[in-house]
Design goal:
The complex is a heterodimer of chains A (314) and B (316).
Chain A (H helix, E strand, L loop, with lengths): L1 E9 L3 E10 L10 E6 L7 H15 L7 E5 L4 H6 L23 H13 L4 E7 L4 E10 L3 H9 L5 E5 L9 H6 L5 E7 L6 H18 L13 E2 L5 E5 L4 E5 L5 E3 L4 E7 L4 E7 L4 E7 L3 E2 L4 E7 L6
Parallel strand pairs in A: 3-4, 3-5, 5-8, 6-7, 7-9
Antiparallel strand pairs in A: 1-2, 2-4, 6-8, 6-15, 10-17, 11-13, 11-16, 12-15, 13-14, 15-17
Chain B lengths: L1 E8 L7 E9 L2 E9 L5 H19 L7 E8 L2 H6 L23 H13 L4 E5 L6 E3 L2 E5 L6 H4 L6 E5 L9 H7 L3 E6 L8 H17 L14 E4 L4 E4 L4 E5 L6 E2 L4 E6 L6 E6 L4 E7 L3 E2 L4 E7 L9
Helix pairs in contact in B: 1-6
Classes of the chains: A alpha/beta (314), B alpha/beta (316).
Chain lengths: 314, 316
């Protein structure tokens, strides 16, 4: 059943509409658990689109196995998705910096408050982001260290490769996830793939994990996979690789691969002069979990991230 | 006047990004004035350019203090000025959300870091800036309430208002906020206009800075007086929001006196042209901010009023 979560009129014959799909058992007992799948806060991050589709495909094959409520919000920022814009067109602010919103505030703040009201109370929410167009990320969950005790057990069931527990920052207090986590609705933030693209392999892995969560919550009675054992960032330090020169970055290793200290990761070339300006080497043993996708770089552009550890990945 | 290069970032094909500062007076780092951080802040760029011209004139005439120094940085982001993009063109990040910066971080973090290291030890920091929403403000000095703010010194600008703002999470990485955390008394100056130059309004900003410099004894000119600034907290402003979306017409301007119940604008149906909403002033006072986009969303703040029941006695 498709429902309208928030609507606000735009000036020219259009409404800003946020819709959700609600899937639920035919006969409700009133004590069903609820999972919310949210994506499209950033209009140029599309990996979650396929996840929303695939969850429904699987449930609709066996609706009799559904024993809880699944709410799917594929587009919190429909204008951004339509115009390939990260934020809400016309606003300087990132939509993920205006939560929990304000019912008396601007249109964007009003929409944000309606979304929070609707998702609040879910037993679990998964907020799916992609990387930007510049970087490719393995499927990972990012968790504010303040919420680690609550969220890491959930994240371990999500069939992702990596859990990144990061420090707090004031600027992140206005995110969708932080706003809900701070009022007791657990939200896992997933980052995966690359901006403006869909990586079906990653999406299907994540959907497998979402069904594990659903089974654990009593929302799904069908068979599930055994989730992957994720690497956790607290196991080792994250090292950043940044460009020292402007140029064109050519990676020489595959993404999501084990590297040794001194291994070459790639080079920055100068097509005008026909020379290599910089060779990029790993400064530790570890796993390359982020790799630059977009070739043109400026000084400082992020080229990759490595989690330092000794264990070799398969 | 001494033109110095504060930072350089090499590019693959473009000329290097260079941030220039213009130094006047002595070597003590006393006042730093910053213009355009966004690529559409042409009004802010213009005000700095005029200050460079005026201070150069004063220096040549021996009317600048020779111990304490003034530096003017017309723009931190010439790349975006040249491509007519508000933010950093490659990844659409805002340098004014990157302070204090990070020397090993991403490009705009490095620019913020490289620049901030050169200016984080001035006694006073002045930033000509623009608001994140389209619209115009009555000229004013804005100060973030970080616990380190100094409201009394802000009076030396002689601007009509001093606005105190409680910082929101997204304010904590701005130049103004970080300056204060590092011990610089920071002031943001707002005048109407961003991507178009309004000379009359720009003169308000230019004169305010000259007044401040004169009051501090950094330049030796007779003061023109200016305003006896009124201090207001941002939350005191009365916000007028639209109920409908459509074409907005406002018949009031920044600084206008209005009476409670006065019709200050209307919204027309976008396609059929008839009035669908009359916008009435909820209180008497003066217009502090008004939106400028003719296509308006519903529930949008289009006017902010400084409440003042006695405003009607003052002539305009």
């Amino acid at each position: 059943m498709i429902q309208t979560v928030a609507a606000a009129p735009l000036p020219a014959a259009e409404n800003y509409i946020v819709k959700k799909q609600r899937l639920q058992p035919e006969n409700l007992l009133g004590n069903e658990k609820r999972i919310s799948i949210v994506t499209g806060i950033h209009g140029d991050e599309l990996e979650g689109q396929y996840v929303c589709y695939e969850i429904q495909q699987r449930i609709n094959e066996h609706p009799e196995l559904l024993t809880g409520i699944v709410d799917i919000y594929p587009a919190l920022n429909p204008l951004g998705i339509d115009s390939i814009t990260r934020g809400i067109p016309h606003f300087d602010l990132d939509m993920n910096r205006i939560f929990p919103g304000n019912s008396e505030g601007s249109m964007a703040e009003y929409i944000a408050s309606k979304i929070i009201n609707d998702v609040q109370g879910s037993d679990l929410c998964v907020d799916i982001h992609a990387s930007n167009i510049f970087l490719r990320e393995i499927p990972q969950v990012r968790i504010n260290e303040m919420c680690a005790d609550t969220l890491v057990p959930f994240a371990k069931r999500l069939n992702i490769d990596y859990i990144w527990v990061h420090g707090t920052a004031t600027v992140l207090e206005a995110t969708f996830a932080h706003s809900l986590n701070s009022i007791g609705t657990p939200v896992l933030v997933v980052e995966m793939g690359v901006g403006m693209r869909v990586t079906r392999e990653y999406c299907k892995e994540l959907v497998d994990g979402i069904f594990v969560e659903m089974k654990d919550l009593g929302i799904w009675q069908g068979s599930i996979i055994e989730p992957k054992k994720p690497i956790i960032s607290t196991d080792g330090e994250v090292h950043y690789l940044n460009a020292g020169y402007a140029g064109v970055f050519i990676p020489t290793v595959e993404h999501w691969t084990s590297v040794k200290k001194g291994d070459k990761i790639g080079e920055i070339i100068d097509p005008l002069e026909g020379i290599i300006k910089e060779e990029i080497f790993s400064d530790c043993d570890g796993i390359l979990f982020t790799l630059r996708e977009y070739p043109v770089v400026s000084e400082g552009s992020l080229l990759g991230r490595i989690l330092e550890r000794n264990e070799v990945i398969a | 006047m001494k033109k110095v290069q504060l930072y350089e970032l090499k590019s693959l094909y473009r000329d290097s990004l260079k941030i220039y500062g213009y130094q006047f007076g002595g070597s003590e780092k006393t006042v730093c004035i910053v213009g355009a951080i966004r690529g559409n802040e042409v009004q802010q760029l213009y005000m700095c350019s005029q200050l460079v011209r005026i201070l150069n004139l004063l220096e040549n005439r021996g009317q600048i203090d020779t111990n304490r120094g003034i530096m003017i940085v017309p723009s931190i982001n010439p790349y975006s000025l040249n491509t007519n993009t508000r933010f950093w063109a490659t990844d659409n990040t805002d340098i004014n959300r990157m302070f204090p910066g990070y020397d090993l971080g991403e490009t705009t973090q490095r620019i913020a870091d490289g620049f901030f290291k050169k200016v984080n030890d001035y006694i006073y920091g002045i930033h000509f800036t623009s608001f994140y929403l389209e619209g115009n403000f009555t000229p004013h000095v804005r100060i973030m309430k970080t616990g380190f703010e100094n409201t009394e010194i802000a009076r030396e600008f002689g601007m009509p208002y001093i606005m105190l703002r409680n910082p929101k999470p997204y304010d904590t990485t701005t130049l103004n906020y970080e300056w204060q955390l590092w011990g610089t008394q920071a002031f943001s100056l707002y005048t109407p206009g961003t991507d178009q130059i309004d000379k009359a309004q720009a003169n308000e900003g230019i004169n305010a800075v000259l007044r401040f410099l004169a009051n501090q004894g950094l330049i030796h000119i007779s003061k023109d007086g200016g305003h006896c600034s009124r201090i207001i907290e941002e939350q005191e402003l009365v916000t007028v929001r639209t109920n409908q979306s459509g074409i907005l017409f406002l018949n009031c301007d920044c600084g206008d006196h209005i009476k409670e119940g006065q019709i200050i604008g209307e919204i027309l149906d976008t396609y059929e042209g008839h009035t669908i909403e009359e916008i009435k002033a909820p209180c008497s006072g003066r217009i502090f901010y008004h939106g400028s986009n003719p296509l308006i969303y519903s529930n949008t703040a289009v006017v902010k009023i400084i409440q003042d029941p006695e405003a009607e006695y003052f002539q305009q």
